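Lab notebook, bench 4. Still working through the backlog of constructs that have no structural model yet. Next entry is a single chain of 306 residues. Request: give me the structure tokens for it.
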Amino acid sequence: MDSSSRLTTKIRLRQLRCFVAVARKKSFVLASEELGLTQPAVSRSIKELELILGEPLFDRSTRGATLTEKGVGFLDAAEAAILQINQGLQSFFGGDQPAEQVRIGALPNVCSQFLPGLVRKFKEGHPTTTVTIYPGANAGLLDGLRRAETDFVIGRLSSSEDMRGLAFEALFDEPLVFVVRDGHPVIKRTPSLDDLQRFPLILPPKGTIIRQEIDRYLAGNGLTKPQNLVESTSSDFQRAYLMATDCIAAIPKGVVQSDLNLGSLVELPIGEGELKGPVGLTTNPMLTPNSSVVEILSQIRRHRDT
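Model written out:
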């Protein structure tokens, strides 16, 4: 038995799950919350794995959880191993599952605007195929796709690190807009770029594609880094905070379209047509799609090309 085979017999699935969760969340705390474990238990599993491999997987001299070069290389292998186990279990217990099923991860605004028409058309030709929709934030959707919990995701393009091992196909560009609550002081006059520094801002966190686009726009218009800033990807928090404060939010228009229609939020005439965020189809090349998944993916691509 060679050394790699001996190592394989020592590594436990629990250790791999903890490693992947910390690597993706970039935080031991967030990983422990996702896994339903205590932080010491997650840290212990990582240390056990590092001891088995004989190499540190995380750089503990930095804030958060940053992968070492060896850790980056091991991440793909760990995710592939977990995926194969999940697929094996699904195959083993397949008798309890529908013969044909399509599982779609999607952003909330995609669920309300893009998916209903798509699913309706698909179901007309496949009435016995079960279609299950899993809404969520982009990061969680990508994690679910890696774990084979969904067949594909319709969401936003993320950073190259977050998209590692996944394939993205652009479907459409979603406008990014600046919005405020109805009755905000800025709508009593003509809004200007200076208002983006005069009032607090809500922006997506650094590293997201949307934040990069917004930062590019602000810098291109000579605006300095925002001083009064809240960062969040939660649309529920963004709405609630907008309604309770005088902040300005930069957000995909689809997320707040219903609020704009109702008049509870107001779009500012700033950056019109200049800010966009790509929304597309993300797949996991390691998954083998069933015939129903292949068909609905074909319908999505035909819809894109028309």
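Notes after review: DSSP finds 13 helices and eleven strands in the chain. The first helix runs from residue 3 to 10. Flag for follow-up if needed.
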